[in-house]
Design goal:
- The chain has about 450 residues and is of the alpha/beta class.
- Helices cover about 45% and strands about 15% of the residues.
- A six-stranded mixed β-sheet has the order 8-9-10-11-13-12. A five-stranded parallel β-sheet has the order 2-1-3-4-5.
- Helix 2 packs antiparallel against helix 6 and helix 11 crosses helix 13.
- The longest helix is centred in the C-terminal third of the chain and has 24 residues.
- Bound molecules: manganese (II) ion.
- The site of manganese (II) ion has 6 residues, from loops.
Length: about 450
């Protein structure tokens, strides 16, 4: 992979103007900021475009724009392979999604860890690859490491014990720690800082409300606990966990990194790298990603914007959950579908939480349907299911790919989570087909 990273770096170093196209999630945004910062330092002109997805249509549009070099980050491996006619421009793909075996486009530089038996699912994200390119361009760019790790957190790559990194992510973390850019800490962190204590400890303690009352702690977000309350909570939860289920013990703690110093000075306002991830994620989900990108690049991000954005996101999410709760779903034997008035950037997360909180019947596939901003007259479909379906051999990503394609849409995903875009008038047909597909599948396997 480092050979391709080297090729990508030499191409970028000789470019006159570069278009960076990236995804709106935390990894996509962090990788775009890393590349932009490195290009600016190298005095190379650049522009950034953040999109919801990359498909044949916008891929073609982008490669026709007046840039000599285009970098697609956090997607593009597959789309680029459908366009083997590009020769006029330098195209660089930075991606870490798994690939079906298929010839790579000879006209693009495709950096993807999966081609080299490095697991891009957990060992490195798009931001990590962007970071290596940036440090090849200029070793001083090591100071962009907090963004590389923020992207990895965004893609849930903190899979080692106590929520630490593995593989190349770990190497980045160690390197940056040695340079004093970040310092590792492991803290009592049973859930994300904005989670209420009662829900944060629910996985560890059966009756969490009573438990909190017994140790005299009022329910509030984890981050609002005083140091004393946090100690009391930690000691009692640990005592309880050790007594009942020692295996869960390590999940009570999370490794994180304090940001000490970096060229992008507003990053030091974040308490930790995980908080940087939370902000990037919230900015994408609330369509304020360009504010995030520009203010971080220009060192003008202020604490108030960080707090406001994270708050705005959690508010939108809870409003969407309320809507799901109040709305009567379209119910089939194997499908529960909600047509919800929210954004296509929120629906996936909302459906995931609703399913986890049993707001949606977990014996069915949970579907969220929202109007698409990205493609008017289309609706965005989000599908989530519990692991039991996977154990029966159902892969929702693959099923969605088949059904959406047959309905003149696009879609795909992983085993338990998928998404797609279909013409609005095909909504009913989609639900029917999905229900029938699951029905047929389960009948044949029983
Ligand atoms: Mn990613």
């Amino acid at each position: 992979m480092f050979k391709e990273i080297f090729d990508a770096t030499s191409t970028i170093a000789n470019a006159r103007n570069v278009l960076i196209v990236s995804h709106f999630d935390a990894d996509g945004l962090a990788s775009a900021i890393i590349l932009a910062s490195a290009l600016r330092k190298a005095k190379i002109q650049y522009n950034i475009k953040i999109v919801d997805q990359l498909d044949d249509d916008n891929f073609k549009q982008f490669i026709n724009e007046p840039y000599d070099t285009i970098i697609f980050s956090d997607f593009g491996s597959l789309v680029s392979r459908n366009h083997s006619d590009i020769i006029e421009k330098n195209i660089i793909i930075i991606d870490h999604h798994e690939l079906p075996q298929k010839e790579q486009n000879p006209f693009v530089i495709e950096v993807n860890p999966h081609k080299h038996n490095i697991d891009g699912g957990v060992e490195i994200s798009a931001s990590g690859i962007a970071y290596f390119i940036a440090t090849y361009l200029n070793p001083q760019n090591v100071s962009l490491a907090p963004l590389a790790l923020a992207g990895a957190y965004g893609d849930q790559q903190d899979i080692s014990k106590y929520g630490d990194f593995v593989g190349l992510n770990k190497r980045i973390a160690e390197e940056a720690t040695r340079f004093g850019i970040i310092s590792p800490i492991t803290d009592f962190q049973p859930a994300a800082p904005s989670t209420k204590v009662s829900s944060a400890i629910r996985d560890f303690i059966d009756n969490s409300e009573d438990f909190l009352e017994s140790i005299k702690i009022t329910d509030k977000p984890l981050k609002d606990l005083t140091q004393e309350e946090k100690t009391t909570l930690a000691l009692n939860v640990m005592k309880h966990t050790l007594k009942n289920n020692i295996l869960d013990f390590e999940k009570l703690f999370k490794t994180d990194y304090i940001i000490n110093s970096t060229a992008l000075s507003s990053l030091t306002q974040f308490k930790t790298v995980r908080e940087l991830t939370a902000y990037l994620n919230a900015s994408g989900k609330t369509y304020t990603e360009y504010i995030a990108i520009n203010s971080i690049l220009n060192n003008t991000l202020d604490r108030n914007t960080i707090d406001k954005t994270i708050f705005e996101y959690s508010k939108t999410l809870s409003i969407t959950l309320q809507k799901i709760q109040q709305r009567k779903p379209i119910k089939k034997k194997w499908v529960t579908a909600y047509e919800i008035d929210t954004t296509e950037r929120i629906i996936g997360t909302a459906i995931t939480i609703a399913l986890k909180k049993l707001i949606i019947d977990p014996t069915t596939i949970a579907i969220g349907i929202v109007p698409s901003k990205y493609k008017p007259i289309y609706v965005k479909i989000s599908a989530r299911m519990i692991d039991e379906f996977t154990q029966k051999g159902i892969n929702i990503g693959k099923i969605l790919q088949t059904i959406t394609t047959s309905l003149s849409g696009t879609g795909g995903g992983h085993d338990v989570a998928g998404g797609g875009l279909i013409p609005k008038e095909k909504t009913q047909a989609f639900i029917e087909q999905l229900n029938n597909t699951i029905q047929t599948f389960l009948k044949n396997t029983n």
